[in-house]
Design a protein that fits this description.
alpha+beta, binds ligand DP6, eight-stranded mixed beta sheet, four-stranded antiparallel beta sheet
Length: 366
């Protein structure tokens, strides 16, 4: 069992001085968001999850992050952060905080001036969480800088492991976004080499029925979340259902890994929807309690259940920490599902907005 924190800390001693270079260099990555089917909700110190989570990486919802770097003047973290081309002091403050954490493992960033330019493929007002895509894009960019300056991380596996580790320190779910397809984060007894420190791609054979999943993201509200994920995670400490939740997550994790292998669509639907509703039930039952769902979230859920009963078709819903509904279904059902969305669901979407997304092949360097 590798202790990644120890490994990267030790290695950091070799990542201090690099051959000076003139002018500016650039690394640019496009990294997607992901949707969790088994939810990460509750964490220990240092971004260690309380339970294993399982997600698939999306395709169309991504962040593009360009890092321009030059040898800096005075030592310390020096960044300028631009969001969609404009200086963004709010994001800059947050990223500076993250970089201070990451500098323990990447001390060379203190000798650079960084300009970070980031933009999302999805609209700002869509309520889509961008921390997974943005933090994974940042981590991948920093690993590329390490590779450029020190000639390290030339091995693909090593590169993505370190990117996942660094992304996790900024936002837990971002650890899963550095790979395409299905991804697992969190030590468990069912997936060999699973770890709390990094996510790994799910290598167990995935049954063909789950190969080309679509995710139609139905936007029911453009508003920013009223409670941040971090606050939500911390409300799990001392939660009345704390222990029961972590046991439930283990059971669901095992069940879903089996269903993905055997192609059990019924089990997939039951577990995925149980996870989504349990996540929000935990929020409602926390102290203080909160609810992020709105009337249209419920209208969509009821319509999905009715449609499934009538058509006996594979489709499942899941929810993130927000009111938007992710409608998950295989490519072969797309025609029927597009009709369903247009005829019955679009009226519940804010400004008739929904995002046509699906399982993707992971980040790309651009
Ligand atoms: C409900 O990864 O956003 O989306 O680690 O505090 O940044 P932090 O939390 P974050 O939490 C995501 C919670 C979730 C479930 C999931 O993606 O697993």
């Amino acid at each position: 069992m590798i202790d990644f924190q120890e490994k990267y800390k030790q290695h950091s001693e070799k990542l201090v001085s690099f051959p000076a270079f003139k002018g500016k260099r650039t690394q640019k990555w496009q990294s997607p968001s992901n949707i969790a089917l088994i939810k990460y909700w509750g964490k220990k110190d240092d971004q260690i999850p309380q339970n294993p989570s399982l997600s698939f990486t999306l395709s169309s919802s991504f962040t593009k992050t360009e890092i321009i770097y030059e040898v800096g003047g005075k030592p310390g973290i020096s960044i300028q952060f631009l969001f969609e081309g404009k200086h963004n002091p709010g994001f800059e403050k947050r990223i500076t905080k993250h970089l201070h954490k990451l500098a323990i493992f990447l001390p060379f960033i203190k000798s650079l001036n960084l300009t970070i330019n980031s933009s999302n493929s999805f609209p700002h007002s869509s309520g889509i969480a961008s921390s997974a895509s943005s933090m994974s894009a940042l981590a991948l960019g920093l690993c590329s800088i390490e590779r450029d300056l020190f000639g390290t991380l030339t091995d693909e596996k090593e590169f993505y492991q370190k990117a996942s580790f660094l992304a996790r320190l900024c936002s837990g779910s971002a650890a899963r976004s550095v790979y395409g397809g299905f991804t697992v984060w969190g030590k468990n007894e069912y997936i060999p080499n699973s770890s709390n420190e990094i996510a790994i791609p799910l290598k167990t054979e995935i049954h063909p029925v789950f190969h080309n999943l679509n995710d139609s993201i139905l936007i029911t509200s453009p508003e920013k979340k009223s409670v941040s994920s971090s606050q939500g995670h911390s409300l799990m400490n001392g939660h009345a259902y704390e222990e029961a939740r972590y046991n439930q997550a283990q059971t669901n994790f095992h069940g879903l890994s089996e269903a993905l292998k055997t192609g059990d669509e019924k089990k997939f639907i039951t577990i995925v929807e149980n996870e989504a509703l349990s996540l929000h039930a935990l929020m409602m039952a926390s102290n203080p309690g909160f609810t992020l769902l709105n009337q249209n979230t419920w209208n969509i859920i009821h319509a999905i259940r009715k449609f499934r009963k009538k058509n006996n078709m594979m489709l499942a819903f899941t929810l993130d920490a927000g009111p938007n509904v992710h409608l998950i279904y295989p490519e072969k059902n797309k025609k029927a599902l597009l009709d369903f969305i247009n005829d019955d669901l679009i009226k519940y979407c804010h400004g008739q907005k929904w995002i046509d997304d699906g399982i993707g092949s992971g980040p790309v360097q651009i």
